[in-house]
Structure to design on (240 residues):
């Protein structure tokens, strides 16, 4: 079971790399914003998988909840900024 | 200047989310000794709630509850709690922040006094961090009066 979660975590890290590619080379700013949001969500899942692997999932749930909250607020602030500058 | 968000969904979700964010921040502060978190992290989550309110409800409505002057007062209060508990330990004959000496005036065991002292210090840190984060955010997002530059 542990190996299964380990492989899943490594696969998730590879998916983060793909999202990061879109963040760096994204043609428009909206692609970059969506890429950053996806990276944040995947980081949350990776944190939970690390918790399962280390058998301390109740601690990592706390951290991942804070991460989800900050990701949400970051997305809102980014949207507000784009609205103000009139780039979209 | 940030104005109120046009979208009713964003405004309502932020209003509903704010008490839960505050409750979660208090949980992180209270459970700082035996789980990840503590004063700094709890303060950052508290400040994140305020930033969410500023982004969605507009800066004018939030400034009625938390202005720059209030933020500075709160940050000083947090520092006073932290340094005051440390100095109290010093006065009672221990080292700086040696919470065990607080047991005699509180009439509790030494170990319990240590737990309470850490909790008090963490509350002070959370208050200070929350106020400083809010002050930084307000300083960034209020228009610069000196240059006469008006943002929309």
């Amino acid at each position: 079971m542990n190996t299964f979660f380990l492989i899943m975590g490594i696969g998730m890290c590879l998916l983060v790399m793909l999202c990061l590619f879109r963040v760096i080379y994204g043609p428009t700013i909206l692609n970059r914003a969506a890429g950053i949001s996806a990276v944040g969500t995947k980081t949350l899942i990776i944190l939970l998988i690390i918790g399962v692997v280390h058998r301390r999932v109740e601690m990592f749930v706390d951290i991942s909840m804070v991460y989800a909250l900050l990701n949400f607020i970051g997305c809102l602030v980014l949207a507000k900024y784009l609205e103000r500058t009139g780039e979209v | 200047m940030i104005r109120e968000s046009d979208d009713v969904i964003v405004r309502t979700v932020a209003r509903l989310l704010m008490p839960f964010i505050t409750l979660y921040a208090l949980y992180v502060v209270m459970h700082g000794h035996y789980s990840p978190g503590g004063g700094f992290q709890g303060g950052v989550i508290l400040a994140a709630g305020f930033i969410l309110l500023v982004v969605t409800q507009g800066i004018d409505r939030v400034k009625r509850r938390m202005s720059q002057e209030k933020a500075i007062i709160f940050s000083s209060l947090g520092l006073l709690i932290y340094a005051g508990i440390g100095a109290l330990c010093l006065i009672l004959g221990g080292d700086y922040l040696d919470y065990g000496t607080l047991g005699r005036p509180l009439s509790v065991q030494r170990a319990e006094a240590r737990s309470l002292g850490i909790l008090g210090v963490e509350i002070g840190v959370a208050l200070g961090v929350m106020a400083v984060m809010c002050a930084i955010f307000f300083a960034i997002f209020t228009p610069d009066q000196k240059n006469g530059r008006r943002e929309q």
About this structure: The interface with chain B takes residues 59, 62-63, 65-66, 69-70, 73, 76-77, 80, 84 of chain A (CB under 8 Å). The first helix of chain A runs from residue 2 to 25. The mean pLDDT of chain A is 88.
